[in-house]
Amino acid sequence: MTRGLVCFDMDRVLVDFLSTWQWVYEKLDINNDESFALYNQGKLDEWSWIIMDLALIKQGCSTKLGEDLQDSHLRHWLADCPMMKGWKDCIQTLLDADFTIAIISGGMQHTAKQIAAAFPSGEPWAKSWGCVDRNTAREYMDGQSSKLLVFSNGWLVNSDGSIPEVGRFNVQMHGKGTVVKILQRRLGIPLEQTVAVGDSSGDISMFKQSGFSINFNPWDERPKAHADLVIEEKDLRLVKEAILRTI
Questions:
Q1: Could you give the 3-state DSSP secondary structure of residue 100?
Q2: Using one digit for the tens of pLDDT, what is the confidence trace for 114-164?
Q3: Contact 163/74 with Cβ under 8 angstroms?
Q4: Domains contained in the chain, CATH given
Q5: pLDDT, average across residues 188-195
Q6: Cα 194 to chain center, whole Å?
């Protein structure tokens, strides 16, 4: 029986950078200031925001490389995205302590799947809610599934490797708590045995749906008031220790 559920945001938590989207923008010398401003003004919903940002990346790829955007471009640009200190030790220790681990993030799915691929389950891949896709299992885990559950955003891929305009939209910025609630129900894990780890106001709904919440590497002051613990130092081993002491 699982000891509990630990839900991690990814960008600025497992990834030591502002966001995986921003990492790609900087590779192309572009920015999404326009779409970000429209979203903050309430003039752009999240689905349209993803579509607009993918169009921006396509244009940036064409301008910088003279090529149409492909899945291979995005995977290549994300390959060296920096990871947070202690990320692997934190997750492995929690898995060894019988916690179920989920990544719930609006960040790009390739990085989330790469993180999940570092923890193969030893069991053959089988389709299930929150599992990595079959191609990730084949390419990185010898056909195994991952011990981690993954919910993230990003891009879709056509059969020829090109990128459609619609994008992947699985996680709402302020709706992560809904994913946590569904996981609790499906896994039979109560709120009291659930931990949420996030950096920003977008993680507050996760905090509210958890018995123990950690505001790690805080983006600003807003999420601090909703967390049981604030960890300023960028070392996920401190998160691991706090969870093991508490749950």
A1: strand
A2: 999 999 999 999 999 999 999 999 999 999 999 999 999 999 999 999 999
A3: yes
A4: 4-17+82-246 (3.40.50.1000), 21-78 (no CATH)
A5: 98
A6: 17
